[in-house]
Amino acid sequence: MISKAVRGSYTLGAITYLFGPGKANEHTDPHIVASWDGFAPDPGRVPEHQVEAVREQLRDALDLYVVQYGQPVKKHVYHRIVRADPTDRNLTDQEWEAIASRVVAAAGIDPGGGENGCRWIAVHHGDNHIHILATVVRANLTQARLRGDQYRVEDELTAIEREYELKDLSETRTREYRDAIPKRATGAELRKAQRHGREQTERDTLRAAVRRALAGAASEEEFTARLAAQGVLFGVRRAQSGDVTGYKFALPTGDESGPVWFSGSKLAGDLTQPKIQARFDLGVDQPAPNRPDRARSATGRYRASTTVDHAAQAFTDGLDTATAGEVINGGIEVLDSLAQTSPVLSRKEINQAARALEYANTAHTRAASADLRAMRSAARELFYAGHTTGRGEDGTAAATILCSLVLLAIVIAKWHAAQGHRHQAAAARDAAHHLRDAYVRHAAKPLAHMDLEGQRLPEAIRDRQEAALRRALPADQATRVLAEDGWAALAATLAEAEAVGHDPQALLVRATGQRELASADSPAAVLTWRVRRNAQLPAPARKTTAQDRRAGAALSRSTTSRSTTPAATTPVQPPTPPAQPAPDQVRRTR
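Structure (tokenized):
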């Protein structure tokens, strides 16, 4: 369950809203399920011609102690919403009555146990939620003690969820979780977006734009220039002394009311001025080139994939929460840069992965370190390498980095699961799902080419690559790779590397040393991309006969369709999660 309280000064206005149609006809069958004495007048259960009079009666009853108080009470109306999760069963009026009584007691509105309470009602609407409306003066004409009410109510909701066998949302009530995830749009923002036919609210659009501008940016000047290029308005909030107190952002609008400004803290906890400035202070390793070119585009993706592999290995070795947050933030920057420079066929999925990974973040409690610097440097190089075509070497490099990013998302999910962070783990799995889709689109064609080449290898060359594999990998891993459909593509890659002077065994040892293969659904595919990257092999492409083209197209379709089944093992299938580590194994072992 979720709950939020607001304060106001107009009792009749709140009653009219609760027993009306709502702002978007979302109120169905509003009626009272509980009240301070069980006998409050109910505007939802009288004929229409009596509704207005009963509303006024209810107002007078709720305001009785406020009037008797004898002096103005600032914001005397207390309005709290309690909503069940959409996956929960529909609760009965009797159950909501019991829940409302417990919530008002926890909040301090009506503690019970002989203590004087305030007057309150609980109104049930059709979609499994209630509104608690109260006035904050008690029967002994003192004001209710409400300080800390949200924390007490959330503790009570956790107990209610367990007793009523509802979805446990206790994790989402922690300060660490709220500080880490993006700030959600309000109901008013959602309705405004719907009225204007927008898929996203202004808040969500702004947050994504700010993150894109921040990805790999080295200074405030560069950051603001990127914001301006996206049409985002930027402002600096200052104290009377002239000191900077924060950043604010807005989208331009033609409305007379002008733009709606959002501070960085209203977008996400890590987009405040101090935390953005901390990234600039950290610096980046890669300078911006004067002119992007295609060769640099592929090289940048290969280098970024190596950086991402190191980050994934760090999660496998074990990270503390603060460092994990830095790496996740860096991963978001890499994804945002990659999306901005990727072809249309994968841009949407990469964007969705970046937005999903935001919800897998952790609260930041210390200054940024080298972990974030390395990822930010990779994001910067991706951004300034320019757009790619997704064909030839670009496509191969894109498949390589996407494979690495899938692995990163998976190990982030496993790390969160080991910490007991169910929601962050689910968000990371969602990011991995989107990245898998993008990966398949880039990987299917080059892997199909390599598979055909591998099938045509002379037996002697094929046996030599198998022997190198058996010497480089543990016996069980080598047996697994050789049994895969993807072995032919890996054999072709090893033969190609050998032909230009590389030692296949050394390449395999290096590829497996960068990250263990136990977590991979297709170790052969992971090794193929790493060997190609480390050996700097060109994109797999050659002239083919009509028969080859038909076979390649059939294999591409086959691998694409099979990739939608998580359990399938195919050449293009990216790695799957490693075994879940025990809690005592997730500490960093540097």
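Residues 313 and 515 are 6 Å apart (CA to CA). The first helix runs from residue 11 to 18.
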